[in-house]
Design a protein that fits this description.
There is one protein chain. This protein has helices at about 10-15, 20-35, 50, 90-100, 115, 140-155, 165-175, 205-215, and strands at about 40, 60-65, 120-125, 130, 160-165, 185-190. The protein has about 230 residues and is of the alpha/beta class. Strands 3-2-5-6 form a four-stranded parallel sheet, sandwiched between helices. Strands 1-4 form a two-stranded antiparallel ribbon.
């Protein structure tokens, strides 16, 4: 796994990848696949979020729980699916809020790659999942790796926006001491899933709030159009 880490993240993640826990994760994933279990996203895309957004370019961290577990959905970016794949319900609600917040039309596709190219780190807490089993790779070792990535961004002197949708993302971020030191903007709201979006996600205006903060800090707004 260490050889797959994008160059910009190596200084941050190499110490974590040298631990026994990380080595066990790599061995466990290989064993799962050797046993015939489908693991999403496919090899070569599991670190796509890190590859797309180097640490010195991060303006916004959009934290998810784990990849989509349906065939063809997961692409290594939280909440994103490849073009041609039906937009999942949570992403459809994100698009509704995007339209309400900024007046942007709802995209016909679910590919969020354009956001990553502007410094939006679309990171999940766990970077793999077994087919049709949400949360199945939680607690297997990914969390130490993604915690280290988030902590490195939070420790930077660059003001950053952390968007935490749902209790899982908020609990994970609670482990990062630098997150609430006043340097960054932390946006907390319910998850955009159909079960919780009406409890405060809708109307939370995360996109305009993020841009107002970034512009005030001289970092430049994100163009959220897709």
């Amino acid at each position: 796994m260490a050889e797959d880490i994008p160059p910009g993240w190596r200084a941050v993640l190499d110490p974590v990848l040298a631990t026994p826990e990380a080595r066990r994760l790599g061995g466990w994933l290989k064993a799962e696949e050797a046993a015939g279990r489908q693991v999403f996203p496919p090899r070569g895309t599991r670190l796509a979020a890190l590859a797309a957004t180097p640490p010195d370019t991060v303006k916004v961290v959009l934290l998810g729980q784990d990849p989509y577990h349906g065939p063809g959905q997961a692409m290594g970016l939280s909440f994103s699916v490849p073009r041609g794949v039906r937009v999942p319900p949570s992403l459809a609600n994100i698009y509704k809020e995007l339209e309400s917040d900024l007046g942007l039309p709802r995209p016909a596709h679910g590919d969020l790659t354009a956001w990553t190219q502007q410094g939006v780190l679309l990171l999940n807490a766990a970077l793999t999942v077994e087919a049709h089993k949400a949360g199945s790779h939680a607690g297997r070792g990914w969390e130490a790796i993604t915690d280290a990535a988030i902590a490195a961004v939070a420790a930077s002197d660059r003001p950053t926006v952390f968007v935490l949708w749902g209790s899982h993302a908020q609990r994970k971020a609670a482990n990062i001491p630098a997150l609430d030191d006043g340097r960054h903007l932390v946006i907390r709201s319910p998850h955009p899933s159909p079960l919780s979006a009406h409890r405060g996600f809708f109307g939370s205006r995360p996109f305009s709030r993020a841009n107002a903060f970034l512009e005030a800090q001289g970092r430049g707004a994100v163009d959220w159009r897709l």
